[in-house]
Every structure is written in C-alpha cells, then in structure tokens.
Specification:
The complex is a heterodimer of chains A (413) and B (440).
Chain A: E1 3-4, H1 5-8, E2 12-14, E3 20-29, E4 38-44, E5 51-54, E6 58-62, E7 65-68, E8 76-77, E9 85-86, H2 87-91, E10 95-98, E11 103-106, E12 109-117, E13 120-129, H3 132-140, H4 146-153, E14 160-162, E15 166-168, H5 173-178, H6 184-187, H7 191-199, H8 203-212, H9 215-224, H10 227-236, H11 239-248, H12 251-260, H13 263-272, H14 275-285, H15 292-295, E16 302-304, H16 309-318, E17 328-332, E18 338-343, H17 344-349, H18 356-359, E19 366-367, H19 373-383, E20 387-391, E21 397-402, H20 403-412
Helix pairs in contact in A: 3-4, 7-9, 8-10, 9-11, 11-13, 12-14
Chain B: H1 3-9, H2 19-37, H3 40-47, H4 51-64, H5 72-93, H6 97-138, H7 143-160, H8 163-176, H9 178-186, H10 191-199, H11 207-220, H12 224-235, H13 243-273, H14 283-294, H15 296-329, H16 343-361, H17 367-393, H18 396-399, H19 406-432
Chain lengths: 413, 440
C-alpha cells in the first residue's frame, strides 16, 4: 500500500536487532542516480548527530514505523549534500509546474510506493498531492492517528500529479545542475502556456527558467509574456544570452521589448546582436510604437509581379520563411515599388502558369510608417485584412503588419 | 489611392525636440512610471479608514476634542514602516505574503493564520455592512433595502470587473474620502488649536484617554491590509526597478489616510465635543448629530463618507480574504478562473459576502459583540502577522540586498512591539470591559 510523506515523517526507526535508532526527520531523492527513488533517510535522535540510512538498508516501512535491515553501527553520519533533493525542505509547500495540466500548483504531500528489491524495501515517489486530502493530512499530522486520517481523507476529492509530469522550479543554476532539473518538458509546452505559467512564479524562478530554456523557446515565451515581466527578466539576463534570445525574436517583437528597457541596456544588447538583425531592430526603434512603423515587421515575403505561381512556389520552398510571413505575399514592380499583395490561399487555387499580378487583391492598400495606429485598425476592420504593407516615400515596401499584431495591440490598448 | 503622392503633399514635418519639450517629456515619463505603480499603497491605506475606523475617530474627536491629534504623526510612521516592508517583499520576491509564509513556515502555521484571518475578516465584513446600513438610514433608506443592494453591487463589481477597472473605481473611492475634508470645513473648527495639538504631544494618563489612543492604533493598522498590499504589487507585476515608485505609493497612502483621520477628528471635535455631545458611540450617530450643529451639508457629507468607506472596504475585504486563504493553502484562486476550477475560492468569497450582509439583516443581531470580536481578532492576529513579516523581510536568501538595514530594523521592531502592546491592551479591554468608559 502507498505511504504518504506525512506518514513517514517522524516514523520511529529500529535497527535489525530491534534497537530504537531515531525518528525520520527528512528524506532525500538523488535524481542523478534514480529519478524517483528515496535514496536517503535522515534519522535524528535527540542531541546526537543525525544518521543517514540508505535505500538498501530498509527492511520494512509503514505509517509511523520503519525497520532497518542493518545494525545502527552500519549507518553513516549525516552530511548535507547539495545534489540531494530534500522532500520536506525542497518539495513540500513549494510550487511546482504541472506540465500536463499546464499550471503552477503547491505541493501538500507526496505519495510513496514501496517496492521490494533484494530483501529491502525501496520507496518510490509516485505522485505529489496538491488537493484537499494532502492538506488534511498535513494539518492532522502527528495529532490524529494515521488510520483515522486515512478514513477521513478517503471521502475527499483527490487531486494529485504523477511524478513524471512534475517540473521542479529551482532558481539557483548550480543546484539545478546538481539536481538534474531540466526544462525539456517545459519546452514541449506551447510558449503561450509557458508564459502563463511563468506569471504565477516568483521573479527568481522565472529568471531560472528563462536562463535554462533554449534561445528559440525563450524568445517565443518572452514574446508572449506580459511586457512588465519581460523587461524585468531581460534586464537581469547576461547580456550575451539576452542578445541571443533577441536575435531569435521577430524584429518587431524585439524592438517592442527593447523600447521598454533603459537606453543603455538597449544599446548594449543591440551591440551584442549581429549587424543585420541589430540594424533592422534599430530602424524599428525609430518609430513611435503607436504608428504603422512601430507595428510592422520588416521581415516579409516579396516577389516580382511578373513571376508565375510555379516560380513563386519553387522560390518559397527554397527559402527559410516563417509560417506567419507566408500568409500573404507582397508584389514588387520593376522599379522595386509596391504593386500589390497576394494571399497564399489565392495562390493555392491558381493555375501553375498564372502571373502574380493577375492574382493580387483589390483595392491596392498600403500605409506610410508614420500613419497613426488608428488608421491601421480602421483599414484592417474595413477591408477584413490579414496583412497590410507599410511603404516608404519611394513607395517601396518597408515592412508588413499582420493581423496578430493588430489583435495584440487592441487587447493591450 | 496613391499614398506616395499624398504623403509627399502632406509630408509631416518633424521638428527637433527643444530643451523644454525634453524636460516635459522627462517629467511626463516619471509621472507615467509612478502612475503605473500607484494603487496598492493608496488603496490599502485608505481602506483602513473603514466603518469601524471612522467610528473610533468620531468617538476620539467627540470625547477628547483635539487632544488626540498628536498621535497621527507617529501612527503615519508606524503605518508606513510596516506597509513598506510588505511592499518591498512583494516587489522583490514577486510572491504574496501568504505564499511566503507557507513556503517558509509550513502548512500548519499557514493554516492557523488563514483560519483566524477568515473569522476576523468575516467580523470586519459584518462591520462594513453595518456601516452601510447606518449611513443609509440617515438618507432615509431602510437597511433591508440598502444592505442587499450593497451586497449585490459589491458582488457584481468584483465578479464582472477586470483588475484594472476595479482599481480605477477604488482609486475614485479614495477621492471620495475628501467629503470628510469638506464636512470638517463646514464645522468651522479652530484650525490654530488643531494645528498645535497635531505637533505637540499631549499625553494624559486618564485611562479612558489611553484606551481611545489604543483604539485609534488598533483600528488603523489591521493585519489583513498587509496581505492585500503585497498581493496588489505582485498582481501589478511591479519589479525591483520600480521599488522607488512603490515606496512612494505606500508613503502617499499612509499620509493621505492620516490626513482623512485628521479631518474626521477635527470635524467632530469642533462640533460634538464643543457642544457637549460627547457620548457618541458610532459614526452614523455623529452624522445625525452634526446636522443641527454644522448644517445639513456637513451631516450628509459625513454620512456619505461613511457609506463610501463601508462599501469600499466591503468590496475589498471578502475578495482579498478569499484570495489570501486559497493562495496560502494552495487552492486555485482568482477571478480569471471559472467556478468549477476554483470552487473553494468562490465559496469563501460568497460566504463572506452573504454571511457578512446577512448578519446585519438579522433582527436583534448582536452587532456590538461582533464589532468587539473583530477588534479582538485583529489584536490577536496582528502580532503573529507582523512577526512573520519581520522574520521574512530579514531573510537574505529571499530578499538579497533588500533586507532591512539595522536602523530600519530598530524602527520596525520598536513599531511592531509598540503596536502589539497597544493592540493587546485593546484586546484585553474589549474582552473584559464592555465599552470604553466615558470621560470624567
């Protein structure tokens, strides 16, 4: 039968000869050895130095009582070890990320499943309790007999998370490495979900997570995160890492982020970024955020208006384009001036030899970069646009505003 | 349409910034920074002037005239010192006070802090709805009409509004406290004497006077406000970089709270005390008594202030309490969840409002006893919370370089001990003496 951490804490421990050794005051997992096995038990006995029993020295364990398979003399003295995860100190009452439920929860208790191996009993951490039963056990721990508590809690709705879906948050990078805490599971989440999770964590924990995500995921998460938090995080990041993350972001998102930072920090980060990306972002920073120029993304797909559908498709396959840039294609005439747009959906239905100029949308719409954002909203609304081109004085396209830029601006406004 | 041609014609001229423009921009930027942070401190301190508080200030002015005004300056300091620590914790750790207590002191401590909090706050909510009932009576509205409507208004405001909207309404409610300033002017007080008593301490050893002093401190600094304040900064995502603005918010809040108290005491001192109406026991009575003394306007403004304060606190207390309890005990909380996702949160919130308003509607409800209970509860709860705050704010692993300095710690501990001693005295008298004895 499963055992709870609350039932193991304070358990009286006897050695193989039946002598009282002490009480269990803490127990540990050594993630580097086995991800869920209880590896060490801390036994305290009054004012003597505490002892440690290992997982292969346990003969039996039940609520409130543990028996060792060795004599007291075989036990070692306790030495603190940074690479052990202490269940009471590091897990109980702390926040963890439920990667399957995609939320932050607080640990009330821990479920342990006993396994027999080589005549010993190993406890393995099976799930963490985040619901009412765990809360009741914590409250009544040591006051009400175990049997009564068990009976009481069986009537309560269960709420637990399997250990494999638990992602610990440890802000200290050294400790994170020692405890083998990775954020692989977090990288599988949608960046928007991860951003929401991060908002529930403390500043240090957010910092820890961003620092250990790969740059691409970090960039996607920062783009989704509340901008007040984004600036706090980026300011504290190592500038080199911050620049790497910015490089992965779309230039308009990077510019929005940099605009919120102090001038010095923003210049420092731009200097760290490779020349071309930095220049794009610098140009965007020149625009007032509430204008078309401040909303546009300078990266967009453009082709000559004389090319055929086949040629364009061929070209698109060869380029590394983001899907969100592939919604609408900008057309240029021979003077490299803006001549129209073609939605990819239209391209899909067209015949192979049709020229792009024949497929373009009517009416021909574009805005100068200093147009007010209200004009942008009105055009999107009136013509049901998905994308709008921003052109300079020579009527050459500078960037594109996509419908997601408009939606997020409207939601924030 | 050819944009090229149009933009060429209407090419907008961008002049370079002049020095003045730059200065104005800098000022505006600083103001926006402050406004982005302002809120939690201002709101929390003003909610302190709730129905219970206003009753005590009224009595203080009616019974002892201007002589208690000197206590407002030390109280401002005490309020600022304690609130600043919570603001700092919220800004630095990004966690609520109940979160920190849970993580550092374990489940059981948290549970007892929270369960005490629940009952104390419930008693406070009853007091707020009683304030609504009493003030509406002056406007001639029956409590059986006023209280249910107030409860529904509170419910709708909080459930339907976004955090930002609610905050704007609350900030507006802060402004409405100015009605006390106007009613004080209408009362035509002797400003010179009032000013003198504000700066010159006047400690009398009369037991009634001491009790009133204790009452002032006890009602002004309520334990739940620390949770609300810290949560406010966390919710607004204020980071260490905006700590200075957060501190300014707390300072402005503490001072504005005390300014309102000053005007309430001055108003009642100039009228009720001078004219011998010294046996006033609550704010509604005071408002009624003001009408013949200082004119209808003064009385109505006074009653309106009480209504505003009661509604304001009744909106904040149940929500804040439900939030804090769920957060500390690890249940889903927050209005962005559906009922099914956060049942405990919604149940707590509902119970607080329904029970709080319901008790006031009971015929022969023992309101007086409930008020005493809320004072006693605050008194028992406050020391625990303040000591937790002081222990947490000095933890270097949590606060880094933002731990208390030695000087600040001395001020904070002295404040805490004084506050605790005073509230314990208040608790003792509330328990063993039915009421504050009238002055000789």
């Amino acid at each position: 039968m499963d055992l709870y951490a609350t039932e193991l804490m304070g358990a009286k421990t006897y050695d193989v000869a039946g002598n009282y050794v002490g009480r269990v005051r803490e127990f540990f997992i050594e993630p580097a050895e086995a991800p869920n096995r209880v590896s060490h038990y801390l036994l305290s006995r009054g004012h003597f130095q505490p002892l440690v029993a290992k997982h292969n020295q346990i003969a039996s364990v039940a609520a409130g009582k543990m028996e060792l398979s060795v004599s007291e003399r075989a036990l070692e003295l306790y030495e603190p070890n940074e690479s052990w995860l202490a269940v009471q100190k590091d897990l109980l009452d702390q926040q963890i990320i439920d990667t399957r439920g995609r939320k932050v929860v607080r640990v009330n208790d821990v479920d342990l499943t006993p396994f027999r191996t080589n005549g010993n009993v190993e406890l393995r951490l099976s799930q963490v309790d985040v619901g009412l039963p765990g809360a009741v056990r914590r409250l009544l721990q040591g006051v009400v007999p175990y049997a009564v508590v068990r009976k009481l809690q069986s009537k309560l709705p269960q709420s637990a998370i399997r250990w494999e879906f638990v992602n610990l948050v440890e802000p200290d990078p050294m400790r994170r490495v020692k405890l083998r805490i990775t954020h692989e599971k977090l990288e599988d989440l949608h960046p928007a979900d991860l951003a929401e999770i991060m908002e529930d964590l403390s500043a240090a924990e957010r910092q820890g997570i961003i620092a250990s995500l790969d740059e691409e995921t970090a960039a996607a998460v920062l783009a989704e995160l509340d901008e007040r938090l984004t600036t706090q995080i980026v300011e504290k990041l190592d500038p080199e890492k911050a620049a790497d993350i910015l490089e992965e972001m779309a230039p308009d998102a990077a510019a929005d982020l940099l605009a919120d930072l102090s001038k010095e920090t923003s210049d420092e980060l731009l200097d760290e970024m490779p020349g071309q990306e930095a220049d794009e972002v610098r140009e965007l920073l020149e625009f007032d955020p509430a204008t078309a120029g401040g909303m546009m993304n300078p990266q967009f797909a453009y082709v000559g208006e004389d090319s055929t559908r086949e040629e364009v498709l061929e070209w698109m396959r060869g380029e590394e384009l983001n899907y969100d840039q592939l919604d609408t294609i900008v057309l240029l005439d021979r003077l490299a001036q803006f001549s129209g747009t073609v939605p990819v959906a239209r391209l899909l239905l067209a015949a192979g030899d049709q020229r792009m100029a024949e497929l373009k949308m009517e009416p021909l719409l574009s805005l100068p970069p200093d147009a007010d954002e209200k004009e942008v909203f009105e055009l999107f609304d009136k013509y049901n646009l998905r994308m709008l081109t921003v052109v300079d004085k020579e009527h050459q396209p500078m960037g594109a505003i996509t419908v997601d830029d408009v939606v997020s601006r409207l939601v924030k406004g | 349409m050819d944009w090229n041609a149009i933009t060429a014609k209407f090419d907008r001229v961008r002049a370079g910034d002049t020095d003045l423009q730059k200065k104005i921009r800098g000022l505006r930027r600083r103001l926006t920074l402050l406004l982005a942070v302002v809120g939690p401190g201002l709101i929390t301190s003003n909610v302190d002037n709730d129905a219970g508080g206003i009753s005590v200030y009224t009595q203080a002015g009616a019974q002892y005239g201007y002589t208690l005004l000197w206590s407002l300056i030390p109280m401002t300091i005490a309020l600022y010192v304690t609130e600043e620590m919570c603001a700092r914790m919220g800004v630095v750790t990004g966690k609520g006070l109940s979160d920190l207590i849970r993580e550092e002191f374990g489940f059981r401590s948290t549970f007892f802090v929270m369960i005490t909090g629940f009952f104390v706050d419930l008693a406070n909510v009853v007091a707020e709805f009683a304030g609504v009932a009493a003030s509406m009576q002056i406007f001639g509205v029956n409590k059986y009409v006023a209280v249910p409507i107030a409860a529904i208004v509170v419910w709708v405001l909080v459930i339907r509004g976004t955090y930002r909207q609610v905050e704007v309404i609350f900030l507006f409610a802060c402004v409405l406290y100015l009605s006390y300033v106007f009613s004080a002017f209408l009362a035509k007080p002797d400003w010179l004497i009032a000013a003198k008593h504000t700066v010159v301490p006047n400690l009398s050893l009369n037991s009634g006077y001491l009790l009133m002093l204790t009452g002032l401190v006890g009602t002004t600094i309520a334990p739940w406000q620390f949770f609300y304040l810290q949560a406010g900064f966390v919710e607004k995502k204020v980071g260490p970089r905006q700590y200075r603005q957060a501190r300014a918010d707390v300072l402005i809040g503490s001072i504005s709270c005390m300014v309102i108290v000053f005007f309430i005491i001055v108003c009642t001192a100039a009228t009720l005390y001078e004219k011998g109406h010294r046996d006033i026991t609550d704010a509604a009575q005071a408002a009624a008594a003001l009408i013949p003394l200082a004119g209808k306007g003064a009385g109505i403004l006074f009653a309106f202030g009480l209504l505003n304060a009661s509604l304001f606190a009744a909106s904040i207390l149940p929500l804040s309490t439900a939030h804090v309890i769920c957060e500390g005990l690890g249940f889903e909380a927050g209005l962005d969840h559906k009922f099914k996702e956060a049942p405990i949160f919604y149940w707590l919130y509902t119970i607080l409002i329904v029970a709080g308003a319901g008790v006031v509607l009971l015929p022969n409800a023992p309101l007086w006893k409930i008020l005493i209970f809320s004072q006693v509860g605050n008194g028992i709860w406050l020391p625990v919370v303040v000591i937790f705050i002081l222990l947490l704010v000095n933890r270097r692993d949590l606060m880094g370089d933002y731990v208390n300095t030695v000087t600040f710690n001395i001020v904070a501990w002295v404040t805490a001990i004084a506050m605790i001693a005073l509230t314990l005295v208040l608790t003792y008298t509330a328990l063993f003496q039915q009421s504050v004895p009238p002055p000789p």
